[in-house]
Design goal:
The relative contact order is 0.12. The longest helix has 18 residues, at about 245-260. Helices cover about 25% and strands about 30% of the residues. The protein is α+β, with helices and mostly antiparallel strands. A hairpin with a 2-residue loop joins β4 (about 65-70) and β5. A 5-stranded mixed beta sheet has the order 1-2-6-4-5, covered by helices on one side. It has a 4-stranded mixed beta sheet with strand order 8-9-11-10, with helices on one face.
């Protein structure tokens, strides 16, 4: 395991998930200071504490220390104090059959996005039940991740009958009540990808959930899936939205996503860049639309945790004959090998 000298240090609560996920995959200890230190209610929020508990569940041997008013709490536990400093020594990704109750402050998508990054590299195939909010106005819904992230995993060789997202029940804020099943097989290595031609759109589909919202996807002839979604206002929060108005606004969002284009939609930019990073020592290329601020920060974190740099080439609309400006992302994978995977 990495030593104290290799510990990475950050300040502030931003990008907490990115840092914890990359620390877990790289095995590097992580220290985050000044978590909302100047706010009236300092420290971790309930949804962040729930996320840390989830990381603890899917790993074996992780050490989590949270500083509260000058004291350190070493936790394996269900309850985490709202300290302003977090120290995380990652254990081994273990997997197996698990259950987790997500904080209703954020949707299940907040937690599922990170599990999609970690699940292929566990010792045992992950099969986890997540309970909470399935659709909200902040995080990607389970519908979007099912429609877009799973096809993306398959392009890297993470496929088979063991890959599944199943919605058992839906839940809205503030009470939640939803439940999903996420299952993912493990892989020892990832195959490189050359994903530079999105292709023309061949079909548009949608999932409408009465009282919850709408998810639209556009699929191309080359397997690119672009998505957009809108959620209804939670009960008691804001005016009721007419279904026709919500549908029209969601269609406009999908058109904007199609205009931005690329081979991966904006929701999954960081996922594809992580999988490229962890691939075999071979060249991977993917064409993306404009990089989001979240993705730009993720690239900085990839450099810090894995010492990897991407070649970024701007492609003008004239070169691509469609939509807005694109970026071609190229890297050589680090040859990450899942040493936890059981050999049979």
């Amino acid at each position: 395991m990495a030593g104290e000298a290799q510990c990475l240090s950050y300040a502030g609560c931003n990008f907490l998930r990115q840092r914890l996920v990359l620390a877990t995959l790289s095995g590097r200890p992580l220290k985050i200071r000044k978590i909302r230190a100047k706010e009236e209610d300092p420290g971790l929020r309930d949804f962040e504490a729930s996320f840390i508990r989830l990381i603890d569940k899917v790993t074996n041997g992780s050490r989590i220390e949270i500083n509260q008013t000058g004291w350190w709490f070493v936790s394996k536990a269900d309850e985490l104090p709202a300290g302003t400093t977090l120290y995380y020594q990652p254990g081994l990704l273990y997997g197996g059959s698990l259950e987790h109750d997500c904080s209703p402050s954020r949707s299940i998508g907040y937690y599922l996005e990170s599990l999609l990054c970690l699940a292929p590299f566990m010792k045992h195939p992950l099969k986890i039940i997540l309970r909470g909010v399935t659709n909200d106005q902040v995080d990607p819904s389970v519908d979007v991740l099912k429609a877009t992230a799973l096809p993306l995993l398959k392009k890297f060789g993470i496929d088979g009958e063991g890959l599944e997202i199943k919605i058992n029940r839906r839940g809205m804020p503030p009470k939640g009540g939803g439940e999903i099943l996420f299952a993912c097989p493990v892989r020892k290595v990832l195959q490189p990808v050359q994903f530079t031609d999105p292709g023309k759109i061949k079909r548009i589909r949608g999932t409408a959930s009465p009282g919850f919202g709408l998810c639209l996807t556009a699929e191309t002839i080359n397997g690119t899936v672009l998505s957009a979604e809108l959620a209804s206002n939670p009960q008691g929060q804001g005016a009721a939205v007419l279904p026709e108005e919500l549908g029209q606004n969601c269609a406009k969002l999908l058109l904007e996503e199609v205009y931005r284009g690329g081979c991966v939609d904006s929701t999954n930019q960081s996922l594809v860049l992580l999988l490229m990073t962890l691939g075999q020592r071979d060249v991977s290329k993917v064409l993306l639309g404009p990089l989001s601020p979240y993705t730009i920060e993720f690239l900085r974190h990839l450099r810090s945790f894995f010492q990897i740099m991407f070649k970024i080439e701007t492609k003008t609309p004239e070169e691509e004959h469609m939509g807005g400006e694109k970026v071609l992302m190229t890297c050589v994978g680090i040859g990450f090998s899942n040493l936890s995977k059981t050999i049979r």
